[in-house]
Amino acid sequence: MKTLIILFVATIMMGVGCSKSEDSENNPDKPDKPSPLPDLPDPNDVCSCMDDIIFMQYCYDNFDVNKDGKVSQIEAAAVSEIDLTDFEIKTLTGIGYFSNLEILNCKGCKNLTSVDLSNNLKISRIGDSMFDGCSGLSEIIFNNNIVEIGEWAFSDCSSLKRIDIPETVINIKNGAFYDCSGLTDVSIPETVTEIRTYTFRGCSSLESIDIPKTVSRIWAGVFQECSSLTSINIPEKVTKIENCTFQDCSSLKNIDIPKTVSKIGEFAFFGCRSLERIEIPENVTEIGWKAFYGCSSLVNINIPKMVTKIGESAFYECCSLINISLPETITEIGTKAFAYCSSLTSINIPEKVTELKGSIFSDCSSLVNVTFEKGSQLKSMTKDLESAGAVFRNCTALTTIEIPASVETIGDGIFDNCSSLTSVTFEEGTQLKSISGGTVFKDCTALTTIEIPASVETIEGGIFYNCSSLTSVTFEEGTQLKSISGGTVFKDCTALTTIEIPASVETIEGGIFYNCSSLTNVTFEEGSKLQYITGRSGNSVVRPNAIFENCTALPNIKIPASVETIKGPVFYNCSSLMNVTFEEGSKLESISGISAVFKDCTALVSIEIPASVKTFGGSVFYNCSSLASVIFENGTQLKSITNDYLDGCAIFNNCTALTIFEIPASVELITNEIFYNYKTHLSIYCMATNPPMIDHLSCHFTLYVPALSLEAYKNSRWSYYYSSIEPIE
Predict the structure, then answer these.
(1) Domain range spanning residue 638?
(2) By three-state DSSP, how is residue 77 classified?
(3) Per-residue pLDDT tens for 334-377?
(4) What are the boundaries of the region Disordered (predicted)?
(5) pLDDT of residue 633 exceeding 90
(6) What backbone torsions phi and psi does residue 63 show, to the nearest 5 degrees?
(7) DSSP assignment of 331-396
């Protein structure tokens, strides 16, 4: 039986709570001496006074030693333990006659209503789980020898309204009055120095309690879920508000914390939604994780000067909090610390804070002013990967911000949906290296201009995604920017009309200007080092957004000489693009990609391919319906014209205005139906004296070849088109 009790207690301790109590020192109803024993109708049978048949039968079955059908007072005096676990008993009348009883277990006796132990003087300890689950128990009278109340002793005694703890009690163990939901009055004697974990957790009817001044420690979760508790005193000997101490005390309005307290633990006041005022003592150095989470009535709070750390979600959803002052000693602010503080209007970030991570001020919808202490040591503002939260996300009232010079990294989503943000500046001497990781200024629809600091080397992700009022993006003189990549940097910036790409940029990749429908002028600074213009970012099988996709107002563009590769759907659906030129001395070697480079550029009439190009393929001009001329520069090095055929996409598919096409003499290979599904009769001039390798051409055409090579073509793989081959006159 003892083993079963231990296992049951261990199981409970893994996941549940506690109860609560009050000081009974001056209670006039507290007995000074044992209650009178009931009269014995049969002086030779202690069971004759019992009014509970089940208890009576238990005593006859276990304590009638001489089998005479009675339990004599001598036999009763020999009993040291009674185990009534889960018995359906209602009363224990007569238990006082068991004068040497040391151990009593009534766990699970749901029908038991009252117990008088005043005559059982050998019981010095209310054992672990002694009355656990006695939901009908409404009265308990202790003897004056009790020194300890064990773990979970009165757990789930939901009918117990009052408890008078004897002055002899020194220890009250974990969960002693856990979930005594009817308990309204508790007296705790001054002999008690600690109130252990979960002692009064779930005592939802308890409104107030007086804790003796002798108590030096209130353990974790002691008053957790005491939803009716409105006031409480904390003795001056207490040095720490432990984890979960007042969690979900939803009626608690005010509390005075003594000056001796140096730490406020995790979940300490979590869910105290009625808490209006609290003074945090000057000795406090740390405010724990979710300490004031959901304290929705809290208006003001002063953080003491000794605090160095504010834990994760410490003031999360304190939606009435208007003012909070952070002392200069703060070095760390946890993620979500002030998230959803929807009444907070301003905040000053202390100098020693080196990182803002996660959604610290996310959804602070009234936050207008964010400043950083002079000499700020802040290094990064980054997203929390686990929660996907971002520092100022949805701060819809924020209008301006200056990023400290010390910041090196601005990460994903930091100012996402700051819809009133009109000005973002960077402190002089900024060390910012990277603006990356996703949607830094996504949906900042009031932002009109921004200058990127010279120190920035990387812009990556949907940084300005849907900044629909953004008209000007400039780069500080001396910029070190190397790469603009990773997705949708300026996607849906529908007011952006012009941009100059700095000479330092080497790579442009992904859907950088996707759907910039007002963009009319894209230039590259003189001396450009740009090498790659690619329409893809990553290895996704699904076609991503292209660099200039849906830039429907862009009329022309000049590709820098430094560019070596153009790949993927770079100019997809640039429906106004009429003129594509290449800077003199072009180093371009490849124009290719399954997802067409100039697909749906329906205004493009002609293009000259630089001599440096060696590879020309993919569905490059798919549906360029106005394209009438494709010319290869003199001295071309082109070796192959290939089609990465996919779902009917071909290099010149639907180029219905193209009637003449000249294949340079340098070409050695033509593959995969470059004119697939071509409806217009085409004149193809192949200038090579040696017939290039070919697969198949699915179009109506006449092939013109050098006269001296006519027979060579007719006897080569071109013989399939024997009747369509003519000499060049």
Answers:
(1) 589-728
(2) helix
(3) 999 999 999 999 999 999 999 999 999 999 999 999 999 999 99
(4) 20-41
(5) yes
(6) -120, 0
(7) -EE-TTTTTT-TT--EEEE-TT--EEESSTTTT-TT--EEEE-TT----EEE--TTT---TTTT-T
- Residue 515 CA from chain centroid, whole number: 30
Instruction: Report how far residue 551's alpha carbon sits from residue 517's, in angstroms, rounded to the nearest whole number.
Output: 5
Query: Which residues, in sequence order, are CB contacts of 278 under 8 Å at separation 6+?
Result: 254, 255, 257, 269, 292, 298, 301
Can you tell me the distance from the alpha carbon of 197 to that of 176, in angstroms, rounded to the nearest whole number? 9
Domain boundary among 184, 212, 244: 184
The neighbouring-strand residues paired with 487 are 510
Identify the three-state secondary structure at position 489. coil
Q: Dihedral through CA 187, CA 193, CA 197, CA 203, nearest 10? A: 10
User: By the 8 A CB rule, do 577 and 539 touch?
Assistant: no
**Residue 24 pLDDT > 50:** no
Asked whether residue 170 falls in the same domain as residue 278, the answer is no
Residue 431 lies in a domain: no
Question: Cβ(411)–Cβ(379) under 8 Å?
Answer: no
CA distance 683 to 628: 12
| pLDDT at 550 > cutoff 70 | yes
Pair 19, 201: CB distance under 8 Å: yes
In 10 A of CB 141, how many CB atoms? 17
Read off the pLDDT of residues 282-329 as tens digits, 9 standing for 90 and up. Answer: 999 999 999 999 999 999 999 999 999 999 999 999 999 998 999 999
Q: Distance (Å, rounded) from C-alpha 25 to C-alpha 429?
A: 67
Half-sphere exposure (Cβ direction) of 581: Cα atoms closer than 13 Å: 10
Given a contact cutoff of 8 angstroms between Cβ atoms, the answer to whether 252 and 275 are in contact is yes
**Please, are residues 356 and 333 in contact by the beta-carbon 8 Å criterion?**
yes
Cβ 657 vs Cβ 625: under 8 Å: yes
Tokens of 368: 């207008």
Give the DSSP H or E segment for 55: helix 53-63
Question: In this structure, how many other beta carbons lie within 10 angstroms of the beta carbon of residue 36?
Answer: 9
**266 shares a domain with 292:** yes
For the record, the structure tokens of 580 come out as 């594509």
How many domains does the chain divide into?
3
Residues 218 and 169 in one domain: no
Residue 70 lies in a domain: yes
Beta strands in 81-155 (DSSP E): 81-83, 103-105, 114-116, 125-126, 139-141, 148-149
Q: Are 197 and 222 in contact (CB under 8 A)?
A: yes
Backbone φ, ψ for residue 357 (5° rounding): -130, 140
Instruction: For residue 559, give the H/E element and its range.
Output: strand 556-559
CA–CA separation, 244 and 199 (whole Å):
12
**323 Ramachandran zone, left/alpha/beta (phi>0; psi -120 to 50):** beta
Residue 671 to residues 641, 676, 710, 717: CA-CA distances in angstroms?
7, 11, 21, 12
Centroid of chain to Cα 503: 38
Quick one: tokens of 631? 């010319």
d(CA 5, CA 623): 80
C-alpha neighbours within 13 Å on the C-beta side of residue 620? 19
